[in-house]
């Protein structure tokens, strides 16, 4: 399958005054990352400036100097770029910093910003900037919307030119770690930690290493039984401990660029420590002890809840589960364990409050998990630019012991990597935001649009506008005010208000003829009390609860007046008419770009936007009709609501 270069799709620039810098490059060292950096500068010089770069032996004649500087305040991954005496110096305390600095320089070329007088310093905002791929060994991707896996096919590990293209794209956006297999580890994927796939994984990890990316694997907690023939996977059993030690010594010995493992345990049917009466700290620590001598880390997911709930049970609240399971363990995890916490307490809905664990945990390393695979936000058939959401939730200040951000990836082997061309903005944007949390969602959108489509004011303006209106639009025409779900079970695409209402997954809206929403105040499930003050009180009280989360925290009558003066039911009708209207406008905006971008891309996106427009209409009608039938309150504005 062929592939495109996404935002690294370089375009030739005529008469660029910055050509002079690129004719001669000097690298003071020859480490792996510096070699990659020089190669990248050469590619950019050739493809953007139409010149051949010469590698020179000293800094005197060089136009670009890659300078390793042990004392650089930018650290190992940060960089400093400055122009001095007609020469650009990129310096860093580490080779990876030089690589990121080189990509930053190239980006400026793409953006047609002058390099003269450049002086920037950048230190990554997050130590780990990870992609989590939910790729299966048969080539399918769980919640994948961009074709099949480019890591696996027919139970084999793939290593080819696309592996390199992936690493290059990821690194250019700032990603430094990648988990290549699904957290639901089954079948042959369990064997990824053995030498059965050793050679391919070593090769892959070496390609990743050139781009500063650590390879991670998801592992199966029951591996000691499935691979080791033990009769238990009890983390406190000595045989189990010994088994893990040996398994880790083996794999880290074979794959030096392995960063560690990601673990989904006791979650949605996956094995875990609960089977043996142990807790998550017991489970994670046994693995961590085995990985520690090799510098490995264990990333342990907190997505643990009862997925066998009874809808009749109003006391159990799935939203509470993460906190209940992990908060008591705060401080009990080994140094090389990092807890990975989904941004919200439920599951990647279009709107959720922040998980109370993020702010709750005081003595535990954490990584914030978000999803760029648009499982619940349009599955890459709708545009939904999620960076504004991530911006809201990642504002670092609330997190202690922050180890970074992970995103469930939206990639696959489609030619354009992300199915929807505009979904690549989420991939790029996640990397950029995790590297530099100061960037605004708009700045990122603009960078992405120019790098992808070239510098054309009309295109940039239109694309940025479309991206920025897309998340609010999606929220408007889908589920209102933080209630979430209302989708078709299993595949999660399209409206189905009661799809999960009587199911076992703990995802209810509790609508009746008078109102809708889940009471999570102390009169209800008590979830709001998991937050630290002042948030607990803010959420607890319907009058202070942020309105976009109203139905997440409260059961509210349809006749309740919102701050806008509108009743709740009127708000539901209005937002659904508006959201569908926005979706129609997205299509019109895109149409205005006909002739300004390649026909192939234009047509690809146009098709998806037509679907989005129609599908948004379906959402509008199903939601409006559902609530009209429940409440029997007509639309004040007399618009058509099907009966
Ligand atoms: O969002 C849910 C998905 C599952 C996924 C799970 C998880 C990988 O529907 O497909 O499993 O979350 O995050 O583990």
Could you describe the 3D structure shown?
The model has no long low-confidence stretch (mean pLDDT 97). The two termini are 48 Å apart. It contains 18 helices and 18 strands. Helix 4 packs across helix 12 (424-435), helix 13 packs across helix 14 and helix 14 runs antiparallel to helix 17. Strand 8 (152-153) and strand 9 (156-157) form a beta hairpin. The longest helix has 33 residues, at 599-631. The strands form 4 sheets. The protein has an 8-stranded parallel beta barrel with strand order 7-10-11-12-13-14-15-16. Strands 2-1-3-5-4-6 form a 6-stranded mixed β-sheet. The chain has a two-stranded antiparallel ribbon with strand order 8-9. The chain has 643 residues and is of the alpha/beta class. The chain folds into 3 domains: 18-122, Chitobiase/beta-hexosaminidase domain 2-like (Chitobiase, domain 2), CATH 3.30.379.10; 128-439, TIM Barrel (Alpha-Beta Barrel); 454-518 and 555-642, Alpha-glucuronidase, C-terminal domain (Alpha-d-glucuronidase, C-terminal Domain, Alpha-Beta Complex), CATH 3.90.1330. The chain binds 4-O-methyl-beta-D-glucopyranuronic acid. 4-O-methyl-beta-D-glucopyranuronic acid is lined by residues 134, 142-143, 183-184, 264, 303, 347-348, 375. Residues 418-639 form the Glycosyl hydrolase family 67 C-terminal domain. One of its GO terms (biological process) is xylan catabolic process.
